[in-house]
From TrEMBL:
Pfam name, any one: Fe-S_biosyn
Top-level taxon in the UniProt lineage: Bacteria
Start and end residues of each Core domain: 2-104
BP GO annotations: iron-sulfur cluster assembly
Signal peptide start-end: none
Name of the protein this chain belongs to: Iron-sulfur cluster assembly accessory protein
Example GO molecular function: 2 iron, 2 sulfur cluster binding
NCBIfam families per UniProt: iron-sulfur cluster assembly accessory protein
Length: 108
């Protein structure tokens, strides 16, 4: 299961409104090969649910995760930081054994 922090929820709602998207647009969280650690996170708005998607709702945010990505993302919390050390969405993934400095790449 993938969850969102309260601050990430607020940022998702803000970005969805800024882009003129309705509540029908969910957050799609996926894992792709690449990056300096071997795997990369992918995060985007998506209004199309695929038959093989795992669907979760947390704090009113609908989250879509494809079956393959779910293996890497189980237990992950999506957070948001706007601090001095970096601004943007962060993945708190208990399955990651190594992450790169940018926070967008990981290994298991």
């Amino acid at each position: 299961m993938v969850t969102v922090s309260e601050i990430a929820k607020d940022k998702i709602v803000e970005l969805r409104q800024k882009d003129g998207l309705t509540d029908e647009f969910a957050i799609r969280v996926a894992v792709q090969g690449g990056g300096c650690s071997g795997l990369m996170y992918d995060l985007q708005f998506d209004a199309t649910q695929q038959p093989t998607d795992h669907v979760v709702e947390d704090k009113g945010i609908k989250i879509l995760v494809d079956r393959k990505s779910l293996l890497y993302l189980a237990g992950t919390e999506l957070d948001f930081s706007d601090g001095l050390n970096g601004k943007g969405f962060q993945f708190k993934n208990p399955n990651a054994t190594r992450t790169c400095g940018c926070g967008e790449s990981f290994a298991v």
